[in-house]
Design a protein that fits this description.
Layout lengths: L1 H21 L3 E2 L4 E7 L5 E3 L5 E8 L6 E3 L9 E8 L3 E2 L7 H10 L20 E3 L5 E7 L4 E2 L4 E13 L11 E4 L3 E6 L2 H18 L5 H4 L1 H14 L3 H8 L13
Parallel strand pairs: 1-12, 3-13
Antiparallel strand pairs: 2-4, 4-9, 5-8, 5-11, 6-11, 7-10, 11-12, 11-13
Helix pairs in contact: 3-5, 5-6
């Protein structure tokens, strides 16, 4: 009887948690700042070019807000996403996306890696960090993992997330706050000659550096970057290059595409 009672007693909690995740987050006040930018502050890119972006969180009132890496732990929590005007194609935003996995590597490699402030290590690997005036900064990731530009033009893009809370960690239900970044204006140009020469240059680099059995030990990061650049080109040449290297051989790493 006791086991039955405990099982039934869990039902309201499960339903409550599910309901909480379906809520829309409340907008954060101006105290919380999400900063979005590109590497080297570049704002002009080619169609299919890798667009490296960086982001950071800060708060003008220290100790009031906490950034939570696992957004699912917050009611109405949402991982970082990007939207643009005019509208662009969104890349799947599931929890196993390239961007989420990259953020996880930044945070926990080796079990830490967050820039800004004193986060040189990971005192608790739960991934929760109090926000202060000193920015909690994330390393560079590709915007291409969030959105895809299919036509040349000028786009105004903005990041948003619901991974910040003002609720104590001791509370059973912790509400997420929706935070929006500053907009950035990108100019995307269509240059078929650049696309083809870039595809060939990256193909040659992959052929030279990334076909051996010592990639993981010596060139994993470099080869992953080359593979990403080929994939994001999204031209007629890029899938042909990728297919060429699905040769059935067992290498010491996956192909990176």
């Amino acid at each position: 009887m006791q086991k039955i009672f405990v099982t039934i007693g869990l039902v309201p909690f499960v339903l409550l948690s599910s309901f909480a995740q379906d809520l829309e987050p409340v907008s954060a006040s101006a105290d919380v700042v999400l900063r979005l930018g590109t590497e080297a502050d570049l704002l002009r890119f080619h169609l299919g070019e890798l667009i490296p972006i960086k982001s950071s969180y800060s708060a003008t009132i220290p100790g009031r807000y906490t950034w939570v890496s696992q957004s699912s732990k917050l009611a109405a929590g949402r991982s970082l996403e990007i939207s643009c005007k005019p509208a662009v194609e969104r890349v799947s935003g599931n929890s196993e996306s390239v961007a989420d996995l990259t953020f996880s590597r930044i945070l926990y490699a080796p079990c830490g890696g967050v820039g800004g402030g004193s986060y040189s290590g990971c005192a608790d690997c739960d991934g929760e960090y109090p926000l202060t005036a000193k920015a909690l900064t994330f390393g560079v990731v590709p915007m291409n993992a969030y959105v895809r530009f299919c036509a040349a033009g000028t786009y105004t893009c903005q990041a948003y997330s619901a991974q910040v809370t003002a609720t104590s960690r001791d509370e059973k239900i912790r509400s997420a706050l929706l935070v929006k970044s500053n907009p950035i204006i990108l100019t995307i140009v269509d240059d078929p000659g650049w696309t083809r020469s870039t595809a060939l240059a990256n193909a040659n680099a992959y052929e030279r550096l990334c076909r051996g059995d010592d990639v993981v030990e010596h060139r994993f990061s470099e080869c992953s970057d080359v593979a990403q650049r080929i994939t994001y080109l999204d031209s007629l040449d890029s899938p042909a290059i990728e297919v060429r290297w699905f040769d059935g051989r067992k290498h010491s790493w996956d192909n990176g595409f």
